[in-house]
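Phospholipid--sterol O-acyltransferase-like, Camelina sativa. Tokens?
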Amino acid sequence: MAPQPEHDGSDVHVELNAEHEHGSDIIANMTKAPRVKYITFYEDSESIPGKRTAVWELDKTNHRNIVRSPVLMRELWLQMWHDIQPGAKSKFVTKAKRGPLRDADCYWDYGKACCAWQEYCEYRYSFGDVHLGQSCRLRNTSANMLLQYI
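Tokens:
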């Protein structure tokens, strides 16, 4: 279970080899922060040799419009990008950390009076930016960030 927004991995809950009875639900017995929306991943690459199964549940997301969810699109894009990498070390993309991948993922942290994710984002005003958050953009050096997901 991982937070939906960008996160540093401190709030990721992992349970391996969960017991499952055929015909019943798997209930995650994990503590959730009340104000955080999570994605719960159920992934299996060992039950059927050569096959993979993944079920992703997004908290508080309207199921009718789920394909419009930027969180789902980010995870789906990362998984597809991971799958085409010849040197991938695992069957599924890691959930340990989610940093910003696009300019839209960078935002202004009003408490610190700077762009959040300082290692990946920087303040770079461009004509037409209406508020501070629009001026937070990915640093040019963040292209290597994708390599951590292989």
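The radius of gyration is 17 Å.
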